[in-house]
Design a protein that fits this description.
77% of the residues lie in helices and 0% in strands.
Length: 256
């Protein structure tokens, strides 16, 4: 389910719980909502509100860290791609095939991360031919004739190894996100809070409007957490500009 759909579902749950509380309020016996009962409700609600606020704050911070780390990793990988192409260019014309494979690798990475849904579905993330491994194979098959070429080959293999590690870390972490059980419990806490708010509020347009805005605000926070926890998907996603810039530089070098 997409982050927008989940955010909408959370909004419906919270606002619906508030409306249920308002409707139930008029049907409860008067002594159930006297001053002493309301004090107990407020104290109980404060405990759940504190837990919910702490959990939501930590989730937002964690999701922001995931997004920032993914953005930094993408920029680092783009810089390493440029460096690898430069090292292979300095090695000599023997690396022409490897450089062509590197060019196709960047194109495949753009499709996997920012292509259409059909293009992403057709892409196999565990296919080694779409990763850096073919380039590493070309580099290992090189036979350096001079000392500088041996150094350049070793340097290129080191850089390609870092790129391979980043690629597989991305593949393995792409399915990670907010645990379903944790999300269900958090939404339950929040729905209970809004229900108690409705129990203590009279049914008038101002109260309903405030409940609507508050439900929308909390649902928007849940949406941000879910969306930013998947930095290459959804509305808020990492820009592909570093990879596109790297692709342009690699293509321009190969035309020289």
């Amino acid at each position: 389910m997409s982050s927008i759909a989940l955010g909408t579902l959370v909004f419906i749950c919270l606002f619906g719980a508030a409306l249920v509380g308002i409707l139930v309020r008029d049907r409860l016996p008067a002594h159930h909502l006297d001053a002493e009962s309301k004090d107990v409700i407020r104290l109980s609600t404060a405990v759940v509100a504190t837990l919910s606020a702490l959990a939501l704050g930590l989730l937002i911070a964690s999701a922001n860290n995931v997004y920032n780390n993914a953005e930094a990793e993408l920029r680092t990988s783009a810089a390493r791609l440029l460096l690898l192409d430069q090292v292979m260019a300095h090695y000599g014309p023997e690396t022409a095939d490897a450089r062509s494979r590197l060019h196709r690798l960047v194109e495949n990475r753009l499709v996997q991360g920012w292509g259409t849904a059909a293009e992403q579905a057709a892409s196999e993330p565990y296919d080694e031919n779409q990763g850096i491994e073919p380039v590493q194979g070309e580099l290992r098959n090189l036979v350096p004739a001079t000392g500088p070429q041996r150094l350049l080959q070793a340097r290129a293999l080191d850089i390609s190894g870092l790129l391979a590690e980043a690629h597989w870390m991305l593949v393995e972490s792409s399915s990670e996100g907010l645990p379903t059980a944790f999300l269900v419990i958090l939404v339950f806490w929040l729905a209970w809070l809004f229900l108690t708010f409705g129990l203590q509020a009279p049914a008038n347009p101002t109260v309903i409007g405030v409940m609507l805005v508050c439900s929308l605000s909390v649902a928007a926070a849940i949406f941000l957490v879910i969306d930013m926890a998947h930095p290459y998907l959804g509305v808020i996603h990492v820009s592909d500009e570093p990879l596109r810039a790297a692709l342009e530089h690699i293509a321009s070098r190969q035309l020289r």
